[in-house]
UniProtKB/TrEMBL annotation:
The lineage of its organism: Eukaryota, Viridiplantae, Streptophyta, Embryophyta, Tracheophyta. Belongs to the NIPA (TC 2.A.7) family. The keyword Flavoprotein does not apply. Homodimer. Acts as a Mg(2+) transporter. Can also transport other divalent cations such as Fe(2+), Sr(2+), Ba(2+), Mn(2+) and Co(2+) but to a much less extent than Mg(2+). Keywords: Cell membrane, Endosome, Ion transport, Magnesium, Membrane, Transmembrane, Transmembrane helix, Transport. This is Probable magnesium transporter. GO terms for cellular component: early endosome; plasma membrane. It is found in: Cell membrane; Early endosome; Membrane. It comes from Rhynchospora pubera. SUPFAM superfamilies: Multidrug resistance efflux transporter EmrE (SSF103481). PANTHER family: MAGNESIUM TRANSPORTER-RELATED, PTHR12570.
Length: 353
């Protein structure tokens, strides 16, 4: 390899690294700005965690969205200069940025074990990425369509959709407010499909710029519709996760699960596992175990956010109170009746367990 070629590759890699670092900084900061917006919107209306969409009228949330978009664009451009094994692990920097900013801005205390969990997630994800199988870059949308319609990937896509529907329809109403894995799981599973469809759209745009028009193929528009649908779903449940749980916990778990599932989806779609050595496979398994350990540590160190007084002491019915008499009998009293000391307002049971 000539000196000029070597210098050019180094310059491209340097550009990719700088863009990836900038991307991580913007994305990590966007978590904090969006959560500030979600909190401000929740103070005047229904919270996103319970299905409210008042945050769409909050300017601070939109600033966070713009910040995230800028970060994603920088990340997309970084892949044009540097290989994925160099750019993808740097996404872990967004975890550090969001955790540090949350500690100082949102006053979400990052405990020592939480720091250890972050490090385990970062190390495990890095191991997975560094030992992930290499993939051949498709040269047309038709080629990606053939890869996307092969039985193995169709099975993965169907499983991803099925798992997402179970999480959305069954788990979310029951456990979404108490288990971080529900909302983050939806974002991560759908996110793996988002990356596959976004890559197809990106190749179509690149080929079109090179005067090989891909807009005439129906596959391009199918990939585009899938990408838009997945992105909207991701944003919806990511907002719920940020509004319900500690940011320092959401960011690492989301990063670890999203990275893992994306690598798995890419490996299935592009059939790159067949060329893996035994040492690489063993390293990837160790990476999975490390990520799982980090996720467990983070979940165990959750610092629950205090509920508001309105949530804690709102009666189930604003018009009826229960009166416990001296003889133990219970009678019902209307709201206009004067309350005595032996009146008890029924409060939500889940705050006592």
């Amino acid at each position: 390899m000539s000196g000029g070629t070597s210098t050019g590759l180094f310059a491209d890699n340097l550009k990719g690294v700088l863009l990836a670092v900038v991307s991580s900084a913007f994305i990590g900061a966007s978590f904090i700005v969006k959560k500030k917006g979600l909190k401000r919107a929740g103070a005047t209306g229904s919270r996103a965690g319970v299905g409210g969409y008042g945050y769409l009228k909050e300017p601070l949330w939109w600033i966070g969205m713009v910040t995230m978009i800028v970060g994603e664009i920088a990340n997309f451009v970084a892949y044009m200069f540097a290989p994925a094994v160099l750019v993808t692990p740097l996404g872990a920097l967004s975890i550090i940025v969001s955790a540090v900013l949350a500690h100082f801005i949102l006053k979400e205390k990052l405990q020592r074990m939480g720091v250890l969990g972050c490090l385990l997630c970062i190390v495990g994800s890095t191991i997975i990425v560094l030992h992930a199988p290499e993939e051949e870059t498709p040269t047309s949308v038709n080629q990606i369509w053939e890869l996307a319609t092969q039985p193995a990937f169709l099975l993965y896509a169907a499983s991803a959709v099925a798992v997402s529907l179970v999480l959305m329809l069954h788990c979310s109403p029951r456990y979404g407010q108490t288990n971080v894995m529900v909302y983050v799981g939806i974002c991560s599973v759908i996110g793996s499909l988002t990356v596959m469809s976004i890559k197809a759209v990106g190749i179509a745009i690149k080929l079109t710029i090179e005067r090989i028009n891909q807009a005439g193929y129906f596959q391009t528009w199918i990939f585009a519709m899938v990408a838009v649908s997945c992105i909207i779903t991701q944003l919806n449940y990511l907002n719920k996760a940020l509004d319900t749980f500690n940011t320092a916990m959401v960011s690492p778990i989301y990063y670890a699960m999203f990275t893992t599932l994306t690598i798995l989806a890419s490996a299935i779609m592009f059939k790159d596992w067949s060329g893996q050595s035994a040492s690489s496979i063993a390293s990837e398994i160790c990476g999975f175990i490390t990520v799982l350990s980090g996720t467990t540590v983070l979940h165990s160190t959750r610092d629950p956010e205090p509920a508001s007084a309105a949530d804690l002491y709102t009666p189930l019915s604003p018009q009826i109170y229960w009166h416990i008499q001296e003889n133990g009998e219970v009678s019902v009293n209307k709201e206009e009746d004067l309350l005595s000391r032996d009146f008890v307002a029924i409060v939500r049971q889940d705050y006592f367990v």
